[in-house]
Amino acid sequence: MVIYTRTGDAGQTSVIGGRVGKDDVRVEAYGTIDELNCFIGQARSLMEDDQFDDVREQLLEIQHELFDCGTDLAFIKLGDGGQYMVTSEMAKRLEGWIDELQAENPPLEKFILPGGSPLASVLHVCRTVCRRAERRAVTLGRNADINPEAVIYLNRLSDYFFALARTANTRAGITDVEYIRSKKVFRD
């Protein structure tokens, strides 16, 4: 199989329903989702012991869902009979996972610095790349019809990565470092 097509040599790429510039906001949105997916793969590769079996499977499911999300954002226009893949149930499931993770974590009152264990550090990168993907999707949504559930999913997913990064540190016996100039911003 030949993987190069040469069709993008002039700065254009195919999306579902046509062609756009490689720097189009649509390509930026789903390209950032692809970048996030790569960092998730890196995080999964750091989960070598069985104390992360539960979240390793969650992350695998999320990787598949991010392909769905990217597909939804790649539609120039949803054709007749077309159907978006990201649903509200996906965000609700993330909320359940977040609640389970948060139950393991110590109470949080102040902002924390990204870092801790190598796994937590990569999960914080996932969180920030996810936020960028969300921003790109919001920008796309201002100029084109998109699946609104994709934006909600990305928003909830970044919260999931925050909770999971804290859980990775908790399971490793590492205390999150509070930002020293932070006021108390989180309350129960």
Automatic annotation (TrEMBL):
Residues 3-168 form the Cobalamin adenosyltransferase-like domain. GO terms for molecular function: corrinoid adenosyltransferase activity. Pathway: Cofactor biosynthesis; adenosylcobalamin biosynthesis; adenosylcobalamin from cob(II)yrinate a,c-diamide: step 2/7. It catalyses: 2 cob(II)yrinate a,c diamide + reduced [electron-transfer flavoprotein] + 2 ATP = 2 adenosylcob(III)yrinate a,c-diamide + 2 triphosphate + oxidized [electron-transfer flavoprotein] + 3 H(+); 2 cob(II)alamin + reduced [electron-transfer flavoprotein] + 2 ATP = 2 adenosylcob(III)alamin + 2 triphosphate + oxidized [electron-transfer flavoprotein] + 3 H(+). InterPro entries: CblAdoTrfase-like, CblAdoTrfase-like_sf, PduO-typ. Its EC number is 2.5.1.17. The keyword Nucleotide-binding applies. Keywords: ATP-binding, Cobalamin biosynthesis, Nucleotide-binding, Transferase. It comes from the Bacteria. NCBIfam families: PduO_Nterm. Belongs to the Cob(I)alamin adenosyltransferase family. This is Corrinoid adenosyltransferase. It comes from Paenibacillus pseudetheri. The gene is yvqK.
